Fold this sequence. Notes:
Blueprint: H1 2-13, H2 17-44, H3 47-70, H4 76-104, H5 110-138, H6 141-159, H7 177-189, H8 192-224, H9 226-249, H10 255-261, H11 268-275, H12 279-307, H13 313-325, H14 328-342, H15 344-364, H16 366-370
Amino acid sequence: MAQIALVFAVRDVTESITTLGVVVAARSIANVVFLLWGGVVADRLPRQYVLVGSSAVSMASQALLAVLVLTGTVSIPAFVVLAAVNGMSTAFSFPASAALVPQTVPAELRQRANALLRLALNSSMIAGASLGGLLIAFAGPGWGLVVDALSFGLAALAFSFVRVPAARVAAEHKPGVLSELRLGWTEFVSRTWVWGVVVAFFFVNAAYAGGTMVLGPVIADTVIGRETWGLVLSAQTAGMLAGAFVAMRIRARRLLLFGVAFVMGFAGLPLALALHPEPWLLMVASFVCGACMQQFGVAWETSLQHHVPGERLARVYSYDMLGSLAAVPLAQLVVGPVSSAAGITATLLGCAAIPALATVAMVASPSVRSVENAPAVQAVR
Length: 381
């Protein structure tokens, strides 16, 4: 809901694609800047407390933005600052939530647990995207932000019931922040398949952020309508839901190889936006994209949890996210000028070509093909 509400709230203030890119890039930049620190904090403190704090900050930032939008007093600088605050809080929540799984789930159940988590997440996202599209169409984006803020408050309450310990390290042996970052970096670069996939997603996520999440709403405003765009995003989440059911039943020895092959499906939505933006085709392409996202996501998370020590997992996740998202702010900033110079259709075709090329590169990697779906280390409890 937040993605749809923020984009169209900005579009109500300005029709500039470049300004929209600046706002969404502010969130991404703050997320990237704080990711490494978020990983260190999540490996030092009980992860449920990190998640409670992150959710509370997100609730406050979204609630304030909602008030400004509803009262008509919002400005572009306010959008930028509050989007950045939300991005910062997410930088702490993602490493903590991802690293929580091996603390609570036996190794032999991780693949199904990751699929089940995504199933629950995406079930709520279907409702959120649909409700967001309706609220924005009939009540305005401010009410979408109100409901989004309330959801963060409920998340904080839910996380407060989780009980897991922090990593047990004697005070005299506890390294400093820089030393912990170096240890995380060592874990990250020691496995070629880890940094190789992250490099590929440096480009894939940039193409998705610029093509789908910035140019997509522009196509919606000019061709298919805001309500239909909400349904397109809902179709993607429905695809994620279906993909999670499939991922729970997959028994692949080379699970990571199986997952990266599905990244090719990410190209369908920008291709449909560029060549034939009919609502039915966009929803089909979006559904397929969502299903493919789930196959990769479950395979990737399960592989990391199997092969990275639990006490360093949050830091490896933070390096993963840093590398995967580093190009996203740049893509969001430049997609406006690039589409103005080259045309929206040509830009979207470029965004479709990138995941296709990335898939070929990952599948061709011997390191990716060698990863087996079996625990290599015992996670810290």
